Amino acid sequence: MLEVINHTPFKAELIPGLDKHGDDFAVIVVKGTFHVQDNPPQLRLAEAQLPIIHSSEHYGQAGKSSICYESDVALPKQATDIVLNGHAYAPQNRAAAYVDVSLQVDDRINSRRVFGNRYWTKSANNWHMTPAEKFQRLPLTYENAYGGFDLRPDPTGEQTFNAYNPVGKGHLSHRKKEPDEGLALPNIENPDKLIQHWQDRPRPVGFGFISAHWQPRLGFAGTYDADWEKNRLPLLPDDFDHRFYNTAHPDFISEKILMGGEIIRIKNVTEAGELAFTLPILASSVAVKMHGESKLFQLMLDTVLIEPNARRVCLTWRVAVPCTRKFLYIDSVTISGKLQTNV
C-alpha cells in the first residue's frame, strides 16, 4: 500500500501526472506557509499551514472574475512564479491620486502605477481623462487593470473583449471611433507606458494569477482541432507548451527556478510602506521506493504567493518522478527537508 511519509512541517501530497507524450509521473507537491516578521525582516514558519488547493478559487464568479488562488495541482514549472494578492496603499496613510507599487526580487524590479478612479470625458470636441480620485487603499486585482468587454456592438454586430484580461476595465474595440462618456479607465498601469489617448490599448498589467483561458497562457495550451481529436485525444496536443503551467503575470515569472536566499522587497502594499524578507532555503530529499528500489529526488521552488494584508507568504515546492505504467507500484514516498530562514 502506498505510503507518504512527511518529515517536514509543511503540507504534502502525491498526485499522478501525465505529460503531453503520455508519460506518467508521480508529482510530489509540498506547500509551506510563513509569517512575515519585521525585525529582522524574514519569514517565520506559520503555526497554521494552509492546505494544498486542487482547483482555482476566484474572487467572484468563476469565469467572470480573476483568480485569487490557483490550483497547486500541476506538473512542475520550469521557472518560478511570483504572485501578490493585496492592495495598493497611499503613503503615510494619506489619500493620494496615485501611488507606485513595486515588487523586487534581488536586482529585478517591476512597478505598477495605481491611480484612483478616472473616466473619459469630452469637452471642446476633445477626449480627456478626469482627474484621478484620491484613495487610501485600492485592490490590486485584474478587475482594476486594463481589459474587459466592449458591450456596444461594433459595425459587424459583435462585442469584443480583451483576451489578456476579460474582467478588467477600459477596453475599447479597434472598430469604435470613440469611447462612451464616462468610460472608466484602468486603475493599474505600466508607469513606462501610461495611457495618453483614448486610442491607446496597453497590455494589461497586474500582480495576480493569470487564468488558463486568458492570454498568454491560452497560447501555450496547444491546438485542439479535428486532427488532435482524431490522433491525440486524450493526450495533450503536440504543440502544448510547458510554459502553460506558469500562472503568474509574465513580468513576475523568474528567468529560472529560485533557489532560496533571494531578497524580496515590495513597496506601498502595506500601511508601513515597505515589506521585505528573504526567501528561505529548503535542503530537501524525496525518497521514492518503487519495486523495492529507492531513488532520491530534490524539490524545486516554483511558486511564491505573497499576501501582505495577512503578512503571509506561501511557498510551493514540486518534483515529478517518472513512473510510466508504474505509479501503482510505488511503495512509499518519504519527504525530508532542512529549512534555513535566516539567510
Spell out the blueprint of helices and strands.
Elements lengths: L2 E4 L4 E8 L5 E14 L4 E4 L11 E2 L8 E3 L11 E4 L2 E3 L8 E8 L2 E8 L4 E4 L2 E4 L7 E3 L6 E2 L1 E2 L9 E2 L7 E2 L17 E2 L27 H4 L5 H6 L31 E5 L6 E5 L2 E10 L2 E5 L2 E8 L4 E11 L7 E11 L3
Parallel strand pairs: 1-25, 7-23, 14-17
Antiparallel strand pairs: 2-3, 3-4, 3-24, 5-6, 8-13, 9-10, 9-19, 10-18, 11-12, 15-16, 19-20, 21-22, 21-25, 23-24
Account of the protein in words:
This protein has a domain at 1-53 and 320-343. It has helices at residues 217-220, 226-231, and strands at residues 3-6, 11-18, 24-37, 42-45, 57-58, 67-69, 81-84, 87-89, 98-105, 108-115, 120-123, 126-129, 137-139, 146-147, 149-150, 160-161, 169-170, 188-189, 263-267, 274-278, 281-290, 293-297, 300-307, 312-322, 330-340. The strands form eight sheets. Strands 2, 3, 4, 7, 23 and 24 form a six-stranded mixed beta sheet that branches. A five-stranded antiparallel beta sheet has the order 18-10-9-19-20, with no helix packed on it. A four-stranded mixed beta sheet has the order 1-25-21-22, with no helix packed on it. A hairpin with an 8-residue loop joins strand 5 and strand 6. The radius of gyration is 23 Å and the shape is flat. By secondary structure, the chain is mainly beta. The protein starts with a strand and ends with a strand.
